[in-house]
Amino acid sequence: MSQRTSRLPGFYKLDRARRLEVLRAAAGLEDHDADIDRLATSGDFELFDGFIENAIGGFGLPLGIATNFLIDGRDVLVPMAVEETSVVAAASNMARRTRPTGGFVTEVVEDLMIGQVELRDVADPETAADRLRQAESVIVAAANALDPGLMAHGGGCQRIEVRPFPEAHVVVVHLLVACADAMGANAVNTMCETVAPALARLAKGTPGLRILSNLADRRRFAARCAIRFEDLALDGHDGAEVARRVVAAAKFAELDPYRATTHNKGIMNGVDPVVIATGNDWRAVEAGAHAYAARSGQYSPLSQWSVDEAEERLCGRLEIPLQVGVVGGVTRLHPLARFSLRLMQVTRAQELARIIASVGLAQNLAALRALGTEGIQKGHMRLHKTNLALARGTDPE
Ligand code: MEV
């Protein structure tokens, strides 16, 4: 066995077999390591090798289908890539309970990405900010001259915002960009880099960072649903009681950031699996969601729940920034991402975002309904045991 090392010069140039050989030696593994052997023959290596550097294989996640979703009047089968027991079952279960009242109704609140150009060493940031604001139309035209493709698809830079930071002698210019069906990172970053020198001249400063902001608070989507009391009963609690308990659970999240974080984690249990299944950047979506949740200065829940006593319904609404696309990058290159979009019959980024928001709200309801009544462990562990038994090929208890 050779000495362990993390120095693997030229590793990136090797083919899979050689990379695994070098890795085995460098990690001090046995000559016949079952996991290395599995990696040597696992499928899709060429695909993954094209995505990242030093690839040795793929890391599979279960891909499940959430059923029962009725979104804006359309039945949708939702692919979810996730390893956590009960997530897919819970989303499907809650979606079924929303059907008698029409399922989920969604809304595009705003659909613009933010690109940031930082301008440093600005002697008079307030005056510079005024000059930049006055030049808005020229700046927007310059940004749009770069990407006729985006303009042709109904996208493009629409306006700017200027944010002076006088104490730091910094001015930040936001380009507000409609990204059409792309997540938009490439288009926005290119725009920022290209207009930065002109902006710096206007501000009499020097260009600093030029990059999109993942606090995509101008690209927000909302989903609403209502559930009849009679469809909420659980564990000996009647539906009206369950509805009130869900509302109380949501109020706790408004009170306490420690609870709000877990509340939002439950929402992301629904959001991330669809983001992943469609080849989108879930780190970006996560970063944006949590930063948005903290916008008031106190980290808060992304959803709100209330009871409509007259109609005898529980009503929920989720509003969340979603920076997702259906063209470009992994979304187009990964066959399962393409399949996921096909399955949902999604061709536009906004359609995808509407679905993601709905699944997030369904997942949140499942968690609050269980937490407010029988507790999370009972249902969770029931499914967990069943799934493990099925995976092992034994009879579930
Ligand atoms: C577990 O993955 C998610 C929950 O903790 C969410 C919540 O507490 O609302 C159940």
Largest sheet: 4 strands, antiparallel
Gross morphology: globular
Q: Any idea how many domains?
A: 3
The whole-number mean of residue pLDDT values reads: 95
* CATH architecture descriptor of the largest domain: Alpha-Beta Complex
Proportion of helical residues: 40-55%
Secondary-structure element order, N to C:
HHHEEHEEHHHEEHEEHHHEEHHHH
Tell me the number of helical segments per DSSP (H or I, 4 or more residues long): 15
Task: Please outline the helices and strands.
Blueprint: H1 16-26, H2 34-41, H3 45-51, E1 63-71, E2 74-81, H4 87-98, E3 105-111, E4 113-120, H5 125-134, H6 136-145, H7 148-152, E5 156-165, E6 170-178, H8 185-203, E7 206-213, E8 219-228, H9 239-255, H10 257-277, H11 282-293, E9 303-308, E10 313-321, H12 329-333, H13 335-343, H14 349-372, H15 376-392
Antiparallel strand pairs: 1-2, 3-8, 4-6, 4-7, 5-6, 8-10, 9-10
The chain binds (R)-mevalonate.
